[in-house]
Amino acid sequence: MIRQIVLAFFGSVFPAILFNIDRKKLVWAGISGTLAWISYLIVFNYGGSVIIATFMGAFVVGVYSEVMARRLKAPSMQFSIPGIFPLVPGVMAYNTVLYIVAQNYDLAYSSAMKTIIVGGAIAFGMMLSSTTYKFFSKIQRDIETKKAAQNKIKEMN
Question: Count of CB atoms within 10 A of residue 112's CB?
């Protein structure tokens, strides 16, 4: 399991290097993939399906990338894109092609559908995390604005 986590880290750092992300942010991009894989393993090992585990991994990456984007003043894509690399269903896609070549169309169809659904789970997890983060940030900003206005009114009286 530790080996998988280390490989997830490097599986996120190397694409970040390929995408020419600032060297100071490479470790943070690697942590994104590590968190994705850890959350994937936790959900999968406790009885979750591959789809739910992938969704949770993508959701964690999305929240992490939004937080780190604010802290490091960088686009969230610098953390989210490398972070989802460990979750991409490459083996499933390979198996789909392998089944097609072997003319086993029933397994090919099943594998293709699972690959598409896992890809959709990644997209949905990223979208939902971004929307959720922005929603709670707006609520927090509104509360802070309201408190500042109330303090200003108190100072005037």
Answer: 18
